[in-house]
Amino acid sequence: MSRVDELLDQIEALEKELVQELRDIEPKLRYTIRDKKVRFSAEMKRRHKLLVTRWFNYVYDSGFMIVLTIPLVWAALIPAMVLDATIFLYQLICFPVYGIPFVKRGDYIVLDRQSLRYLNVIEKINCAYCGYFNGLMGYLREVAARTEQYWCPIRHARSIKPTHSRYRYFFPYGDAEGYRNGLAEVRKRFDDVKPPEGQ
Questions:
Q1: How confident is residue 133, by pLDDT bands cut at 50, 70 and 90?
Q2: How far apart are CA 117 and CA 109, in angstroms?
Q3: Element spanning 123, H or E
Q4: How far apart are CA 27 and CA 53, in angstroms?
Q5: Is residue 111 scored above 80 in pLDDT?
Q6: How far apart are CA 153 and CA 145, in angstroms?
Q7: Per-residue pLDDT band at 179 (split at 50, 70, 90)
Q8: H-helix or E-strand spanning residue 40
Q9: Alpha-carbon distance 70 to 86, whole Å?
Q10: HSE toward the beta carbon, residue 118, CA cutoff 13 A
Q11: Across-strand partners of 38?
Q12: Which residues are CB-neighbours of 148 under 8 A, at least 6 positions away?
């Protein structure tokens, strides 16, 4: 195992630890997650309702210049939705041909902030937009990472920021022999993302 693999394993372990740490916060905030739905205690629901900012005050406090940027921000939604549909079709058509496991869109695009009663309608819409857009970028990145692993699994000479989930399997920059001898194997190396048998 190379030092790069060790570091990537440490990063992966820290990401898992972070997820667990965030889950440990759930009871303190008096919510649970069941069937991908967030459930707050009755007490927290009451407390949240007290903290809602009226939408008019929210807009007023945002300032005039920020309000002027809204059309530009929302115009990006149209190409994002086209991109979303394109990624779906690309995966549907190409991944079975390449033998690459599908990326689950729902693991990346999470729209759950509308359940927060302390957000006003505008904040909920903004949170849905951000959850969709950032989730879409993560989804796209993973689809692209798996595609890159199949077609061109060679690390860059210069450092990139940040590396994606498949980068660990790429060949070092300049490792021509490793690339030629191991390309067929790397193209099939998706055991870590394949669902268990029977799912």
A1: very high
A2: 21
A3: helix 121-151
A4: 25
A5: yes
A6: 9
A7: confident
A8: strand 37-40
A9: 25
A10: 9
A11: 33
A12: 164, 166, 170
> Which residue ranges make up each domain of the chain?
51-186
β-sheet bridge partners, residue 111: none
What is the mean predicted confidence (pLDDT) over 179-187? 86
For residue 171, give the 3-state DSSP assignment.
Answer: strand
Return the closest-CA partner of residue 190 out of 165, 172, 164.
Answer: 165
Angle subtended at Cα 90 by Cα 88 and Cα 93, rounded to the nearest 5 degrees: 105
Angle between helices 121-151 and 55-62 (to 10 degrees): 60
Q: How confident is the model at residue 142 (pLDDT cuts 50, 70, 90)?
A: very high
What's the CA gap between 107 and 135, in Å, rounded? 8
- Rounded to whole angstroms, how far apart are CA atoms 185 and 150? 10
Q: What is the pTM of this model?
A: 0.77
* Short-list 70, 69, 86, 81, CA closest to 147: 86
Backbone angles phi, psi at 115, to 5 degrees: -80, -10
CA 182 → CA 1, 173, 177, 186, distances in Å? Answer: 16, 14, 8, 6
Instruction: Decide: helix, strand or coil at residue 73.
Output: helix
